[in-house]
Amino acid sequence: GEHDSAKVVLNKNTLVDTVWVEDIELGRGYLLISDLYNHGTMWRYEIGGGPIPIGKSLFMDYSGCRSDLWNRCSTETESTTNEKDNSNDNEIYHGSSGVTIQVTKDEETFLTGQLIIVEKGERRIIRLEKDGSRTPLVLNVTTSLCNDNDNETNNSALPPLPSSHRILNPSLVYYTPFGDLLFTDHNDNGCNNNRPPIAGIYRLKEVVNVPSLSFQLSKEAHGWTEDDLQKYWVKHG
Question: What's the pTM value of the predicted model, to 2 decimals?
């Protein structure tokens, strides 16, 4: 069932990010609030008149987790992922985290464009297209921070690390005036599960040029790897 939003605000403190969106057709803007609890919810707050509800309304359900491929998306479903979820059965935080706006090209305001969402449960960052499809923007990050950490500690007994890995705990996201996407990712267990927590700030250049996915293809993309994403970019870029 649906969880009590008031309870989430007061007891769970899971409203993690906001973004203001201007709706040209409505002639007014509204505030989107990203909720990390369970599979994720995005709330819409607005003031004004006309047929659109005033105050709080549901903007998006399952905003951070839908596939059960990377994490268990709800306390009410069984996990189908091969990676074990360490969360308590009653405390699932796999919803949407950071949100920002990819500004429409040549638009006069920085408040109009397409929504970019950090899907923590899917361990990726996506762009919400006009037809409702979700285009993956970020799946992997490089392990350069981990390699630097290994060099500092001189621990040659640790196994070699891959050149990149799936993002683990993506959180904040920011669209720059230059068209780049900045985002954060952190690993509470360190690089090899025996390190102090490690975090980094990453950049995806010219995110505006990332080709969009069709609605049908975006459903398949939940299971995509970095190789799948790169092949799509090469073919459609």
Answer: 0.79
